[in-house]
């Protein structure tokens, strides 16, 4: 039912309260010409109140046929006042329906806006004035407070309901745009971890080998640049996002799964120890560092990208150290190297050029886990600290 739900529930409550008010007026009057007929009208109103309470809460039943019949039935109950009250009623006597006739006006306004609310108010006001004219009252002396209130209720409620619907639509579009952006970031990380790095490797090795391999490397470099630009700019968000299949990029370094099952998490230390080599030293706590499988996957991939950057920018023989620290509320993974450091402004320039190694494959992954990344660089090396909350 969306944002309209509270409006329809409020109208149902208004109908029930107005029905009780009309019944109290009938009991207190004691002077109506045909009180039995009055109770029959109250009974019809009660049945219709129950019907509309259910019908307006069901989207399949809510529509113009129901709204039209609601308006006509309410007008008929209002006009029955001529017979129920008889000739002794005065111009200020409350109709048998009392305030119950305002319910269809509110329903029209909620369903289709202030114009529809104004039309329904006009119909009920004409019925009320006709009722008083049939009784022989001087219409110039008849109070029009009821008609004014009907118009105000129909127009104001209709306007507010339309604004609420527009706000809901805009919020839904914002949610879809945000979801599309996150999907694009996940896709970009997957492409960076596989296709872009392979193209960069072909370009570098082709230039080293020379000859026809150099031409292949040049073509690979051109395609890498084109693909980076596509990933950086990204497609426009699809408004039919709900129907799209979710793309989950493959990880180059899959996380180890604990024998205890995913309910108790996976050991981050076990997953990161796979990166240990002659050039990479891995230091983890003696006890397991349990995290959710998704968190282990993301952190493992982020560390892998950090090590790729070390090999690419510091050379094949550069040393790197991985340190895992487990605190009561978070896990901290630090990757440090002994390279020449990162020049000032290089990371911002790389993100602008569509190079996603740090901005998405490291920062983006950790941010998706609710954590943060701190990068410290100096001529003696670079240190990347990834902090992820345990929750």
From TrEMBL:
Q: What protein does this entry describe? A: Histidine kinase
Protein origin, superkingdom: Bacteria
Q: Where is this region: Disordered?
A: 235-270
The cross-references to InterPro entries, in alphabetical order and at most eight, read:
DUF5931, HATPase_C_sf, HATPase_dom, Sensor_HK_TwoCompSys
The UniProt record lists the DUF5931 domain at 1-169
Q: Where are the transmembrane segments?
A: 6-27, 39-57, 63-84, 91-111, 139-161
Histidine kinase/HSP90-like ATPase domain sequence ranges:
297-390
Q: Which GO terms describe its molecular function?
A: kinase activity
Chain intervals with Low complexity compositional bias: 250-269
- Pfam families, A to Z: DUF5931 (PF19354), HATPase_c (PF02518)
- Keywords for this protein: Kinase, Membrane, Transferase, Transmembrane, Transmembrane helix, Two-component regulatory system
The family database entries (PANTHER family) matched by this protein are listed as: NITRATE/NITRITE SENSOR PROTEIN NARX-RELATED, OXYGEN SENSOR HISTIDINE KINASE NREB
**SUPFAM superfamilies named among the record's database cross-references:** ATPase domain of HSP90 chaperone/DNA topoisomerase II/histidine kinase
Picking any one GO biological process from the record gives: phosphorelay signal transduction system
Q: Which Gene3D superfamilies match?
A: Histidine kinase-like ATPase, C-terminal domain
Annotated organism of origin? Acrocarpospora pleiomorpha
Q: Does the keyword Transferase apply?
A: yes
Q: Which residues form the signal peptide?
A: none
